[in-house]
């Protein structure tokens, strides 16, 4: 796939403490000349701050400071002895604590999947903090089929013998959703999702995260965030959908526009859940949206 030519900038990391004693981590990418609104990036369920490095490289060039947080149990943040704390509620408290500890003011939020849920909830409970919201392949209603797929994958095969095996595993699982990603791209994605450990290459999250999803079937009650979405519908929102997404349906994508007429939409061609935010077109769309925020 075509990707933007942005240098891989090395972030600096800052830490803060959760109210139950876990050390949490955020990555900061600083622009040479800050001219735009700060951007807070929140990752997907099992993902980490490395997902945002390509986008951060582009946005810092546009004058934005970019901050990405690792949730508890993921990336550089600490693992908790009780997996039940890997919940939306505990993560929301961690985000609020991080905003205070890191002295972050008004900002835009870019949320991928679960991160978009957190973005909506943050805008709802603290509207003074959020100047705009980018929802990457997530909406107020989640497709049951996609959630069932994710619940069957997460926490399974955590380790790979080497980077090539990790890349091949991702290709086997996701090629149908990302048909334009080539061999180099799968290796690049592997380095975002996996980390080196004493036992080889390992997915960078606590495997017990799978326990939080349980079994997803036709009887499982799924979250309904339409009331939250309606409450924030006056906020500047850019919604991105992967053309092959099995999480954000075409119907929900359309309803979001109906319920929030000012909402901007972008479809990422040849991508599924969730768009990687590597390509130049999507990065430009995000940057144009952010340039209008204050």
UniProtKB/TrEMBL annotation:
Span of domain AB hydrolase-1: 39-278
InterPro entries cross-referenced by the UniProt entry: AB_hydrolase_1, AB_hydrolase_fold, Carboxylesterase_BioH
Superkingdom of this protein's organism: Bacteria
Any Pfam family matching the protein: Abhydrolase_1
Gene3D superfamilies per UniProt: alpha/beta hydrolase
Protein name: Pimeloyl-ACP methyl ester carboxylesterase
Protein's organism: Stappia indica
């Amino acid at each position: 796939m075509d990707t933007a030519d942005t240098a891989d900038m090395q972030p600096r990391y800052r830490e803060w403490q959760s109210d139950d004693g876990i050390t949490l981590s955020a990555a900061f990418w600083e622009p040479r000349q800050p001219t735009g609104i700060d951007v807070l990036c929140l990752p997907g369920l099992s993902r980490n701050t490395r997902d945002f490095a390509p986008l951060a490289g582009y946005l810092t060039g546009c004058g934005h400071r970019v901050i990405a947080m690792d949730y508890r149990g993921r990336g550089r943040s600490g693992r908790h002895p009780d997996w039940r704390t890997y919940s939306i509620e505990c993560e929301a408290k961690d985000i609020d604590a991080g905003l205070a500890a890191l002295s972050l003011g008004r900002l835009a939020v870019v949320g991928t999947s679960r991160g978009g849920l957190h973005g909506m909830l943050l805008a709802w409970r603290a509207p003074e903090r959020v100047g705009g919201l980018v929802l990457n392949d997530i909406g107020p209603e989640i497709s049951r089929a996609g959630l069932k797929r994710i619940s069957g994958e997460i926490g399974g095969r955590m380790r790979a013998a080497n980077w090539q095996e990790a890349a091949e595993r991702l290709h086997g699982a996701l090629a149908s959703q990302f048909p334009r990603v080539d061999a180099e791209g799968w290796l690049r994605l592997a380095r975002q999702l996996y980390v080196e450990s004493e036992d080889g290459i390992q997915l960078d999250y606590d495997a017990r995260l799978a326990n939080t999803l349980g079994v997803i079937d036709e009887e499982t009650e799924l979250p309904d965030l339409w009331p939250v979405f309606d409450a924030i519908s006056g906020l500047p929102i850019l919604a991105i959908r992967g053309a092959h997404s099995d999480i954000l349906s075409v119907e929900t994508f359309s309803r979001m526009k109906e319920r929030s007429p000012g909402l901007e939409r972008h479809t990422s061609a040849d991508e599924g859940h969730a768009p990687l935010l590597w390509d130049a077109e999507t990065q430009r769309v995000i940057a144009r949206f952010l340039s209008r925020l204050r």
